[in-house]
Amino acid sequence: MRRPVVGLILIGLGAFFLALAPMVRFYVADQVVQAPLNRYQVTRLESPNSTYFDQSDLKLKNGVTLRANNTIRGDVRANGGNNKIAVWDSTTDIYDQAKPDTPVQIQKFRIAFDRRTGVLVNCCGANVEGDSTVRMSGYGLLFPIGDVQKRDYPFFDMTTKQQAPMRFGAVERVHGLATYRFTQQIPLTKTASLDTKMPASMLGLPADKGDQKVDRYTEAYNTMWVDPRTGIPVKQRENIRSWVQTPDGKGKMLVAQADLITLDKDQRGLVSMSDKTALQIDLVRSYVPAAAVFLGLVMLLAGGLLGLMRDRTPPPVEAPRRPDGKFGDAVPAAPPAGPGAPGASATSGAPAPGAPAPGAPGAPAPGSAAAPPGSFAARAAARPAGAADSPVVPPSEGAKPQPRRAPSDGRQRRLPSRRR
């Protein structure tokens, strides 16, 4: 292939890669950098030295270890075909480690959010504990997808059903991963009106006050360690205290206190998952566009240099033509005309100087053409007169000539020839 053709091909490929780079960065990246529709994740948290009110025997238990299993499941059909929206269901089971079959509390909610930004939207059956009238706002389970900054973010608290700021604190490492630490303060908030009544003595009131109607209040201090590359929390800490108190606030009792932290094993799993997600984001945002620009520039430069260089390839050799215009070797010339041919010279019949006269020994017979020198006929004509009666056998091809020996009776004998 000639250099100009190769140069044009390289220039075309270089232009293609240069056009590919912005398409991958600004179009393909938007299709890849988003939350998945189908998500299944189980995260375990633990709180040693906790306190909770056991309703089965109406006693406050202290120094117990509480476990919380949070399960997230994606509902791919709940968005009604709008793939820009992801719908996830979250269920958290809190139980005493000594009594795993008896849950202390179960929390359920469903969120719908924009897959690219992570912002909550009110659609697709979003609810908290079955209450679909709750209006969610801000962020829920994830931070901005692939773009977490060192600033405060509005975060929706599912327990109090209200929005509270998640404030940036510092950069800390979690199993070698540099994360952003965010904290959220939830003030004491009424979360439920209980139908049951409690004895006044348990609420710190005189026993003669009888049973009192109470409401439930909760306060929390939440901490999240977030991978800024992906927006995925890799570690959580929820310091929760829950109270029941009378409507006038005179009587109250602590019913739950826990400091739940993500288990170390689950932290490692979340870090690994976030690393894989970050690699996918970096591929479409940085690595592939940069490689496309580099290859495009190299190919454009190489193609331009090949186009400027002189082509030194020799031209192809054309096939020979005969005088009649057809391809092939030239037609051999006709043999010279004999003495009797028309137009022959009158002197052509005269013998050449030094040639034997007609009829002389060794002279060719009249009307016959002279034999080529070295041929069998020429050697036969040049034999001596005494050997005229002896037949001449041509030597076999490839055989060495045999020396002739004179017989004892003075006669010549023919040596047997080799078979062919």
Automatic annotation (TrEMBL):
Composition skew (Low complexity), residue ranges: 342-352, 365-388
Keywords, ordered alphabetically: Membrane, Transmembrane, Transmembrane helix
Pro residues composition-biased segments: 353-364
Amino acid composition bias (Basic and acidic residues), ranges on this chain: 314-327
Transmembrane segments: 287-308
Top-level lineage group: Bacteria
Keyword Cell membrane: no
Alphabetical list of InterPro entries matching this protein: PorA
Region (Disordered): 314-420
Keyword Membrane: yes
Name of protein: DUF3068 domain-containing protein
Biological classification of the source: Bacteria, Bacillati, Actinomycetota, Actinomycetes, Streptosporangiales
